[in-house]
Amino acid sequence: MLSGRRYRLALTPEQAEMCEEFGNICRSVWNTALHQRREYRRRGAWMNYAPQCAELADAKKDHPWLRAAPSHALQQTLKDLDQACRDHGTFQVRWRSKTRWSPSFRFPMGQLIEVERLGRRWGRARLPKLGWVSFRWSRPPGGEIRSATVSRKGRDGFVSFLVDDETTAPERHAMPGTSVGIDRGVQFAAITSDGDFHDRPFVTAGEETRYRRLRQKLSRTKKGSANRRKTIAAMNRVMGRVTDRRADFCAQVASVVTAKNALVVLEDLKTRNMSASASGTVEAPGTRVARKRGLNKAILDKGWHRLELALTNAARYTGTRVVKVNPAYTSQRCSACGFVSEGNRESQAVFRCKAAGCGHAENADVNAAKNIRNAGGQPVSACGDLGTTRSAKQEPVSRATGRTPS
């Protein structure tokens, strides 16, 4: 099974300069190739990896600066672009900005990479054109190296090895028949149908204050100045720690959940669409912008999509099946009798069924998680939104029986 191993690099000044140069060359190749693909598409023609790779070889004759970067790293950049265009469409792939994109490049030929351990805390790897680079030995690679990716996050450099750890995914979970539903929220990051609430603060009060002051300082700096670059670097260091805590939290939750359950059911949430820029409603542009901005920040802070990725990755080692279901009305449906009504959810935390003869009451998030689990991989039989208000598309409720018609 292929797995990733990430280590912090200790580059020499010369190696750091070379990595910056390689990253910039790969960024230039990406943007040039993407521009070419878009121009071909506008004319109704196609451009793919093979002809672009041949043109890259010719471009090296006219542009000697392209020869500074390893050839297979540039070819891998074109392969990544080709895959991105196939997955998302040529006009949906993003440009790599010099200011917003962190330099990175990949060495796809694992046979050219050597790794040695120097001591208890340090190791080194030999990478093409970079030579021997030292890195912090936090764990053994644990398998055959297939590729290596060098990247930069803030002021630190990292190397990520793709290794074959020689493990196989189990055909069956150790506890077959177990299942759990997970409701992702803004008050708690993850709530399970078993009644477990998973959450932790990712940013401290001191970091919030420091980040706010850095943003104020950034607004007073001049674009392109050295002070602006220093301020941005300081902001990235603060948010880098927050991102690391969020990733660690998601990995821990995923490990616990997949170890105990053979089936994990999630809502099929379009996180990117849900956290889109706050620009108001179609009927009234510019309204409720502050409220939407706060919701977007809460969604992104809890790491909904990162938790989904962590569950999918952890499930490979336990034989767990991860299923996504239609999220419609999971917060308004009674998990005991199935009655759907806007009034069932009395508040953000309280759910009380209004159906005659039911009266089921529990935490609203736990009730939603049970509905997600009960979906069992099948779409919920209603279409609508995720909010606590009733949509015009919701199934009608009979006034005589107080239930949805069958």
From TrEMBL:
Gene Ontology MF, one: metal ion binding
Key words, A-Z: DNA recombination, DNA-binding, Metal-binding, Transposition, Zinc
Limits of the Transposase putative helix-turn-helix domain: 1-43
Statement: the UniProt record of this protein carries the keyword Transmembrane: no
Matching Pfam families: Cas12f1-like_TNB (PF07282), HTH_OrfB_IS605 (PF12323), OrfB_IS605 (PF01385)
Keyword Translocase tagged: no
Domain of life of the source: Bacteria
Any GO BP annotation: transposition
Residue ranges constituting the Cas12f1-like TNB domain according to the UniProt record: 304-372
Region named Disordered: 381-406
Residue intervals of the Probable transposase IS891/IS1136/IS1341 domain: 168-276
Family: In the N-terminal section; belongs to the transposase 2 family.
PANTHER family with a match to the protein in the record: RNA-GUIDED DNA ENDONUCLEASE INSQ-RELATED, TRANSPOSASE
Protein name, as recorded: Transposase
Lineage, opening ranks: Bacteria, Bacillati, Actinomycetota, Actinomycetes, Kitasatosporales
